[in-house]
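Lecture notes, unit on binding sites. The following record was shown on slide 14. It pairs a sequence with manganese (II) ion.
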Amino acid sequence: MQEALRLNKPVLAICRGMQILNVAMGGTLIQDILELWGGSIKHFREELPEHMPAHTVDLCGEKITEIMGKEKIDVNSFHHQAIDRLGTGLLCTGISPDKIIETVEAPGYFWVIGVQWHPELMFNYFEEQHNLFKSLVTKCLENMP
Ligand SMILES: [Mn+2]
């Protein structure tokens, strides 16, 4: 992750990848949401089909809002950890109703987006989730040497 950032590569960091992105930039994690944050929303929904929305996310970031084309999205949820303190240079760009950070951007870099949900399990069913991967591919092509 640090090498990808150093080389200013496009990064789409998914779930644990977003947590690794945060730690690589100096942030910290909530080690267990249920234990340390409370249980108003279940974020580890292993009983649901993988593509099934588990909660909403309110978006505010410039990139993610443009990609998704809306300010409130439905996401699946298979995590028990979450971002606590943000890494330096990371912005929270979307939160769940119980105020868990669900998506981040790093504006100082070429194209770095992290999402706490799993768009790779949803893109067949939700066009806005497919848009995330289309944007990544577009940015990779733009970034070719
Ligand atoms: Mn979640």
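Take-home: The pocket of manganese (II) ion is lined by residues 43, 55, 77, 79, 96, 100, 102, 116 (CB under 6 Å).
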